[in-house]
Design a protein that fits this description.
The complex is a heterodimer of chains A (about 270) and B (about 300). Chain A has one domain (about 5-270). Chain A has 13 helices and no strands. Chain A has helices spanning about 5-20, 20-45, 50-65, 70-80, 80-85, 90-120, 130-155, 160-175, 185-195, 195-210, 215-240, 250-255, 260-270. Chain A starts with a helix and ends with a helix. By secondary structure, chain B is of the alpha/beta class. Chain B has two domains: about 5-220, Rossmann fold (3-Layer(aba) Sandwich); about 225-290, no CATH class. In chain B, about 30% of the residues lie in helices and about 30% in strands. Chain B is built from ten helices and 13 strands. In chain B, strands 5-6-7-3-8-9 form a six-stranded mixed beta sheet, sandwiched between helices. Chain B has a four-stranded antiparallel beta sheet with strand order 11-12-10-13, covered by helices on one side. Classes of the chains: A mainly alpha (about 270), B alpha/beta (about 300).
């Protein structure tokens, strides 16, 4: 017999498909952006083809997590859905992990489309090593999905959630190496970019999967940072989750800022290495 | 098994400076419909949330079927069904999915026939967001009872419903009671409480105002009967005559209104008066104080 968790996950996947705004952010928007940018960006900057596949994958992951998950969670909390779930024995574990698993499954589909399209339609650089590519995808998707759940838990309202998500999304697109290679950024901005998960995701894709660099502490560091971020995000999600429809007290919300810790520490680690 | 389904002793819940529930004590007997009444902010929902395991009491004892809700919530949630005051489902979830979803979490196979029983068979595949308020409430009740709980807790289940939907929910509650389910019903609707409940507790400012059967509660208050009379030739208009054993309280909208502690004497006199004046009776109303009036009386006294 299917248990509650499996039934919940099954519903979550179906809900993602039924919700047109989710479909837009998970599939239509990233794929549309990919096709549009693929038509002119390689003419302006031919080197863009070297980062096109990971850049577009990361764009899709950020859109499909930061722009969807927080709002579903905030609406569920405010609408008393969490409380309905609670009195029927739905555990907090399910409410935290199921959106993450659902997002990773949707992102895997979007990634397959974008990777294939980058190579076949635009002749973009393809991974030379697929195992690190899949690993980089998995960790990136988990990192952004857990971050999105954390935003959904700590945001006071939908508007507040939008502000927090945009505060990560927009700098990530501009500084994370999606459009412009990280090496071309000024030194000051490169340090700031290191605080963004997108930067580490791009490094992971570029060094190990696309360039096929040897496994060293330096090349593996982005994967370690993403892994540490996933763990920190999950710990924060479980520690800060609440069933009540009221928002978290400000002091507790501020604890969520420790999510930036793995990225801040990575700046020190790079200097040491 | 004890006759008591829910036992509450000296329950206290404090939010900051506000004692939302202050030393509440009462029992809910098995197989009854127990009404929880009180004005807004009286502490009904907080009391229910302590019973449902959603809040931990600051002091006192709550036992539901012998279970301590604060210590064994999962065990409790398999034994009770709850319809919260502010509860919802995801807009994209269908009734059938909702039933399967919650049944699985209760470790059961879903019994979809319950949707037919609650008049939702034709709506089973429709998404929650498209249902009417009445249909949403019926679905919430269907989910609350789908795992065959011994106790069902309903927090204002008929608020905002039209008359027909309300009657439908009343019928469902009566059926559940007939099947042996204990129901705790928090409501603002006095007529609903008087009609459905076997016992009622009125909570005022977190404290127990009164507890008993609806008859006991109304009998304990002001015992004066109201008599209202209107006649064809206006015997009771203008200078309305005095009636023995009754006090004239006014003449409003063509009716003379009297108040009496023993209405038989003034009623006999009233009929005689009509005969003497060759007048005909148009309308005669004899009303005992209702639960609503008793509720207002208790609320005012306690404020």
């Amino acid at each position: 017999m299917m248990n509650g968790y499996a039934a919940h996950l099954s519903y979550d996947l179906k809900a993602g498909v039924r919700d047109t705004s989710h479909m837009l952010m998970i599939y239509l928007f990233p794929i549309g952006f990919f096709l549009m940018i693929g038509m002119f960006m390689p003419r302006i900057n031919p080197e863009f083809l070297d980062i096109m596949a990971p850049g577009m994958i990361l764009f899709a992951i950020m859109s499909g997590t930061l722009m969807t998950i927080p709002f579903t969670l905030i609406a569920s909390r405010e609408g008393g859905i969490f409380r309905s779930f609670r009195v029927n024995g739905v555990p907090a574990t399910a409410l935290i992990t199921i959106p993450v698993i659902g997002a990773v499954i949707h992102m895997a589909v979007a990634t397959a489309i974008l990777t294939t399209g980058s190579g076949t339609i635009f002749g973009a650089l393809m991974p030379v090593r697929w195992a690190p590519f899949v690993l980089a995808f998995g960790l990136t998707a988990l990192c952004f999905a857990t971050l999105a759940v954390l935003i959904g838990i700590v945001a006071q309202s939908n508007r507040n959630g939008t502000l927090i998500a945009q505060a990560i999304y927009i700098p990530s697109v501009m500084l994370g190496g999606l459009m412009v290679p990280e090496a071309l950024l000024p030194d000051g901005l490169r340090a700031a970019a290191s605080l963004l998960p997108a930067t580490h995701a791009m490094r992971a894709f570029n060094t190990l999967a696309l360039s096929g660099e040897a496994l060293t502490l330096t090349t593996v560091l982005p994967l370690l940072v993403l892994s540490a971020s996933i763990i920190v995000n999950l710990i924060l999600c479980f520690a800060l989750f609440q069933w009540d429809s009221r928002p978290l007290p400000t002091a507790r919300r501020m604890i969520a800022l420790t999510a930036v810790l793995p990225f801040a520490l990575s700046i020190l680690a790079v200097q040491v290495l | 098994m004890s006759d008591v389904a829910i036992e509450i002793r000296d329950l206290t819940k404090i939010y900051g400076d506000n004692r939302a529930v202050d030393g509440l004590t009462f029992d809910v007997p098995h197989g009854t419909i127990f009404g929880l009444l009180g004005p807004n902010g009286a502490g009904k929902t907080t009391t229910l949330e302590c019973v449902e395991g959603l809040r931990k009491p600051d002091s006192g004892r709550v036992r539901v079927l012998g279970i301590d809700p604060a210590r064994h919530p999962k065990k409790l949630w398999d034994a009770i069904g709850v319809q919260l005051q502010t509860s919802g489902l995801p807009d994209t979830m269908t009734g059938r999915e909702a039933l399967a979803f919650f049944s699985r979490y209760h470790g059961r196979s879903p019994d979809y026939t319950i949707l037919d029983r609650f008049g939702l068979g034709a709506k089973a595949q429709e998404q929650y967001g498209t249902l009417s308020v009445g249909q949403k409430r019926r679905l919430a009740l269907a989910i609350a009872v789908s795992h065959e709980p011994q106790i069902v807790i309903l927090d204002e289940p008929t608020a905002g419903l039209d008359v027909e939907s309300r009657m439908e929910l009343h019928r469902m509650m009566s059926e559940l009671k007939a099947a042996g389910t204990t129901i705790v019903l928090a409501t603002h609707d006095m007529a609903e409480a008087e009609k459905l409940c076997d016992r009622i507790a009125i909570i005022i400012q977190g404290k127990l105002g009164v507890v008993g059967t609806p008859s006991q509660i109304t009998a304990a208050g002001d015992q004066r009967t109201r008599i209202q009379v209107a006649s064809m030739n206006g015997t009771f208009l203008g200078n309305a005559p005095e009636l023995p054993g009754a006090v004239l309280t006014g003449v409003v909208d063509g009716y003379a209104r009297y108040s009496s502690e023993a209405p038989s004497k003034p009623l006999t006199a009233l009929i005689r008066l009509l005969e003497e004046h060759n007048d005909e009776l148009v309308d005669l109303r004899v009303e005992r104080p209702s639960l609503e009036e008793r509720f207002i009386e208790i609320t005012r006294r306690n404020k």
